[in-house]
Structure formats: C-alpha cells, structure tokens
Amino acid sequence: MKTVAFGAFALTLLFAGQSAAQAQGPANPGPVIPGVCVFHNERLLAQSTVGNSVRDGMRVLSEQVSMELQPYAQAIESEITALEQGRGTIPEQEYAQRGQAVQQRIREAQQLEAQRQSELEYTLNMQLRAIAQATDPILVAVYQERGCGLLLSREAVIEMNPAMDITDVVIQRLNGALPSLSFTRMTPPVQVPGQ
After folding, report:
1. How many other CB atoms sit within 10 Å of the CB of residue 107?
2. Is 35 left (phi over 0), alpha (psi -120 to 50) or beta?
3. pLDDT, tens digit, for every residue of 157-189?
4. Cα–Cα dist 19/128, whole Å
5. Helix %, strand %, coil % for the chain, to 5?
6. What is the pTM for the complete model shown?
7. Per-residue CA distances from 13 to 17, 23, 45, 132 (Å)
C-alpha cells in the first residue's frame, strides 16, 4: 500500500521557486521599459510569511495523514505476511476468507487514503485561494502606483531589468496584510452528478 505522497509532492512543486534562488542576471540588464512591470507569483508563495505558513501547515497535515494511515498499512502487511507464512497449514476455506478480508481492508484503506488526499488537495487549494484574494488588491495598487501599462508573469520572462520587478513590494505588503493562515484539513464539498 502506498503512502500519501501528495503533500510533499505538491509542496515541492508549489514552492520550487524558493530553492531556485534568483540566478545572476546579465551584467547590463538593459533599460527599464516604462509601463512594463513583472510579477513572480511563485516567489511570492515561497518568500511571503503566509506562503511559509501554508507550506508548514501542509507539511503538518501531510504528516498527520501519514500517521493516520500507517496503522492500516502495518495491519494489512502483517495479515498478508501471516497468510503467506501459513499458506500450507491454514485450511483452504479459512485461507480464502482471510484473503477476502484482507482485500476488503486494502480497499477500505485505499478509499481512506484517496479521501485524505482529496482533503489535502482541497485544503491547499483553499489556502492558495485565500492568498490570491489577499494579493489581488495589493497587486492592483502596486500596478497603479508604478504606472504599469503591462504586467508580465515572471515565469514568461527570460531576462529583465530588476527595476521592473514589483514582486518584493507585493510580498512586503502581503506580509503586513496577511502574515499567516491558520487551518485544518478541510473536507471538499460533495460533488453531485450533473452539476
């Protein structure tokens, strides 16, 4: 039975920008283009205090889920080992019944794991939504203050003059407006077919 790896994978993917420290740009970055601004969302998530609180909170939730699922995996593995070791000595009918019971426990554990993974995904999405809602008005304000006429995503820009990057200002203001998020694992709403 696999362990829940979603939390670690999602957080690694989500905060990949943090480990990819800003590389050295060209010695001459070129002129500042008036009205062109650049924003790096991944860096905001990696370097803001609220982004760090989400990363830490998701790590805790992932560990809790792993600890919750571990006894199921251990019990199933023990029963499988017992069945394999007793293959020749356990009566055939009892062996079949125990095998079916193990299969049922495996299905139940897989369903629980899928449910917990869905909860982790939903929780992460809700936290990212809260960060986006807090960031949007800040981003609009900085855009207007800097006289931006075009805002580019840093992910789409290969090189630029650092003076056009508004990410640091947005991070600083977000840190003041939304320093952290407290949360618990959330249950996704029930999906009704046809909606």
Report:
1. 10
2. left
3. 999 999 999 999 999 999 999 998 887 888 888
4. 19
5. 65, 5, 30
6. 0.77
7. 8, 19, 11, 17
